């Protein structure tokens, strides 16, 4: 069975071969690709594109990697890729094309150029829906007040970014969904939205696998944690909800003076140099203002870039993991926390309720209700038995949900089903 994957990130193996940094996104695909490539009856090719690059065609560890040269960034439709895709398909003659994520347009160029192939697309998020929640509950007044020179000249304000999501949803994402006969999803949320846009699409359920490091890592230990520490896996834009955590921590800091928020990723509030000040985003300025307002300078730390191993270590150090997003499908960060056994709290949004049984493997709260978030944090800080229960429940549920052998077999079954149905 010849399978062609179309992906957004350049895979780590190809990135290393090209001398580029390894991407921090797309981890759910890497383990599955590795597992599929080891099946004797599977030939796996992984392709993507970038503008103004030297085309690449390499075979690494049994996987064929292809990088196409485009003329536009992947958020814009690039008709020049249609010719390149036709050439590639003529050589590969794949039995099935699996497009991972539909927020970028290079896969859409393939679907338009070669409409008669067997396609299936995987839903990660849905930018058309996410755009509705992009502001993260921040008022228009606060957004305007915090627009920076960088935002103004680069057109990267929160308002601009929200609009970009809307446009991508209309011009790219919805077109994928209307062309697709087969869709892979994993939550009631993504199924409902797919069926609303294209009622005729076949919906195939399949959970995702996680990065290798989270299967081989030791588990969270109650006595090894840093008391009253909170870990966030990312916080660079409003959807991810860092501002809500700051509001909640302000309500708790008198009861827990040593409360600490550890945030993976660059410090979006940094203004140490003239360059930092010029590059400060509006959201970064807003967060900086909240830290000053609540005097939380000693209560938050940005950890910088973390690879999978370093991420696992930070999860294990924490007392709580929080996924405070204004919208999510099924965040792999929550799956990673659960499979390690880190007591987890998440906002009741999107597909997150499919991952948490409240009180058993995590706690939920309404995104808007910072008081509820504060109380859920307090519940875990003050109740050691609850922390251990959530840890054990998280390990049990996530180990089943992210079972790599089960997910690989389910993927193969879906592939065979799609091929047997043909382009219908």
Query: What strand line-up does the widest sheet have?
Result: 3-4-2-1-5-6-7-8
Give the CATH class of the largest domain: Alpha Beta
Gyration radius from CA atoms, angstroms: 22 Å
Low-pLDDT parts are none
**Which class do the helix and strand fractions yield?**
alpha/beta
- CATH level-four homologous superfamily name of the largest domain: Glycogen Phosphorylase B
- Which fold does the CATH topology of the largest domain refer to? Rossmann fold
The percentage helix is 40-55%
N/C terminus separation? 19 Å
Largest sheet: 8 strands, mixed
Shape: globular
User: Mean of the pLDDT scores?
Assistant: 95
CATH architecture of the largest domain: 3-Layer(aba) Sandwich
Would you report the number of β strands?
14
Total helix count? Answer: 18
- The amount of beta strand, in percent, is 15-25%
Tally the structural domains.
Answer: 2
